[in-house]
């Protein structure tokens, strides 16, 4: 195991990694920006290094500053957390050239899976179900119209270099397709410096289901079952749960097997997530791979008993997984609610400021992952997530009952948070019956809150 690592992230996930390090006897060095200088979690690390001003480009996204901190602190590895540099293959390459272990997959896996078209090609080779579409880049109008007519409207245009919903457009006929193609290409060029786009049949009102995978450097790859992340708004998830409430055992098995085949084909190690769309007929289609630890990893930890951050540290240091697929059992039910400092009544506008009041829930079946505390000043520079409330129970009704009780206990203000909206959703009949899809939240709470 490493003796010292650098945490190139902030907030809740930085604290989560500090805690894993403590339990493994690994020293942690955390970097921070001037906007985070007073954060209490910095004191829990063995050392903290200021790397620059508040804007992320000058701190958490600044590769030379992070590498300098790693050199000064003399660490063996860097954990990138999520967001920021976590899926940046160039950063992983710089780490490698500096002989610092990047706690994540190989540079090669990050590069191939970072391209949606390349990852779809790998998926095709190992019989992972794909949405009908262009199966390659689309450049001209004529070609686009031919493909759309073959697969049938509506279609979706996606940027190969995109991710998390950025650079996507839906077209319902030839005319809108022609306009959307040009717009998508120039948007992709501007956002990702790569204008490559492709076309797929558009699935209406699907669920979003994803499979957690973990691999080691000895060729072992396991899945840790699935999560349902259908409750989201503008590609920002708000609630996740495991298991997926609508999957039968056979579909779950073939979904998880498909994810493992894909990960093996990409020589994957570390933690990763294979995303799928699930349609109303419970057919699943590959979307993309996230080559990082995700925000919602705790629900998987609760239903499988596997500590994913510790597992990442172990496999990065070269240890074999020491687990077999048969050892992984999905037991009970876990739900995560994201606590964001934003105002659902004002179109989810960020609500930074001081948490004059902050009292988080506890008790049986409750896990609270947060770096916030009473008096904490939420900086305006970063995303608005201030914590994750996760509940666990023997079944879904129990996990929901615990979540309702925990949300009732929660005191946070005067900054606005997602807590009141989360309480409404936990009481919503459609949510309770799992009759939701990726558009449900926006349709149901259209400025109603
Ligand atoms: C789709 C789709 C419908 N049909 N692809 C959005 C994020 C990116 N990973 C892929 N996304 C979608 N791809 C086809 N062929 C609908 C979405 C989509 C979505 C997917 C997952 C979770 C939330 C979503 C919200 C809107 C659209």
List the helices and strands and how they pair.
Elements: E1 4-7, H1 11-24, E2 27-33, E3 47-52, H2 63-73, E4 77-79, H3 89-97, E5 101-102, H4 107-114, H5 116-125, H6 141-151, E6 155-159, E7 169-171, H7 174-192, E8 197-201, E9 207-215, E10 221-233, E11 236-242, H8 249-265, E12 270-278, E13 284-290, H9 297-304, H10 308-316, E14 333-340, E15 342-343, E16 349-350, E17 353-354, E18 357-359, E19 366-370, E20 377-378, E21 385-393, H11 396-409, E22 411-413, H12 419-426, H13 429-432, H14 440-444
Helix pairs in contact: 3-4, 6-7, 11-12
The protein binds ligand MV4.
The site of ligand MV4 has 17 residues, from β8, β12 and β13.
Spans of 5+ residues with little confidence (pLDDT < 50)? none
What class do helices, strands and sheet pairing give? alpha+beta
Percentage of residues in DSSP E strands: 25-35%
What is the overall pLDDT average?
Answer: 97
Quaternary structure annotation: single chain
Q: How are strands sequenced across the largest beta sheet?
A: 13-12-9-10-11-14-21-19
The helix tally amounts to 14
By CATH, the superfamily of the largest domain comes out as: ATP-grasp fold, B domain
Distance between the termini: 49 Å
CATH class identity of the largest domain: Alpha Beta
Ions, cofactors and other ligands present here are: ligand MV4
């Amino acid at each position: 195991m490493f003796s010292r690592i650098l945490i190139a992230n902030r907030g809740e996930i930085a604290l989560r990694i500090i805690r894993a390090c403590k339990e493994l006897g690994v020293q942690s060095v955390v970097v921070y920006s001037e906007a985070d200088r007073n954060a209490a979690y910095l004191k829990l690390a063995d050392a903290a290094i200021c790397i620059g001003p508040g804007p992320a480009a000058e701190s958490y996204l600044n590769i030379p500053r992070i590498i300098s901190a790693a050199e000064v602190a003399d660490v063996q590895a860097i954990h990138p957390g999520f967001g920021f540099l976590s899926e940046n293959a160039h950063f992983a390459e710089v780490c490698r050239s500096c002989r610092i272990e990047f706690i994540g997959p190989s540079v090669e896996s990050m590069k191939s899976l970072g391209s949606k078209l390349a990852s779809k090609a790998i998926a095709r080779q190992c019989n992972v179900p794909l949405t009908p579409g262009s199966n390659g880049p689309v450049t001209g109008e004529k070609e686009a119209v031919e493909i759309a007519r073959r697969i049938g409207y509506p279609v979706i245009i996606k940027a190969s270099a995109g991710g998390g919903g950025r650079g996507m457009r839906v077209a319902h006929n030839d005319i809108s397709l022609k306009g959307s193609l040009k717009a998508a290409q120039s948007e992709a060029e501007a956002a990702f410096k790569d204008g490559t786009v492709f076309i797929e049949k558009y699935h209406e009102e699907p669920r979003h289901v994803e499979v957690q995978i973990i691999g080691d450097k000895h060729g072992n790859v396991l899945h840790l079952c699935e999560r349902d992340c259908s409750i989201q708004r503008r590609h920002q998830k708000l609630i996740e749960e495991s298991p997926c409430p609508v999957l039968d055992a056979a579909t779950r098995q073939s979904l998880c097997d498909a994810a493992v085949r894909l990960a093996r084909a990409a020589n994957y190690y570390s933690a990763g997530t294979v995303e799928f769309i699930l349609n109303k007929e419970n057919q699943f289609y590959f979307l993309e791979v996230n080559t990082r630890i995700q925000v919602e990893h705790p629900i998987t930890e609760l239903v499988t008993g596997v500590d994913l951050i510790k597992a990442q540290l172990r496999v990065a240091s070269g240890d074999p997984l020491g687990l077999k697929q048969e050892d992984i059992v999905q037991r009970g039910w876990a739900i995560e609610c994201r606590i964001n400092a934003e105002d659902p009544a004002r179109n989810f506008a960020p609500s930074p400021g001081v948490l004059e009041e902050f009292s988080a829930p506890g008790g049986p079946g409750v896990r609270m992952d947060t770096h916030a505390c009473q008096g904490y000043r939420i900086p305006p520079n970063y995303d608005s997530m201030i914590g994750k409330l996760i509940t666990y129970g023997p079944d879904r009704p129990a996990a929901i009952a615990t979540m309702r009780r925990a949300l009732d206990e929660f005191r946070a203000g005067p900054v606005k948070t997602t807590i009141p909206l989360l309480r409404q959703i936990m009481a919503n009949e459609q949510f309770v019956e799992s009759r939701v899809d990726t558009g449900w939240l926006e349709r149901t709470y259209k400025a109603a809150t």
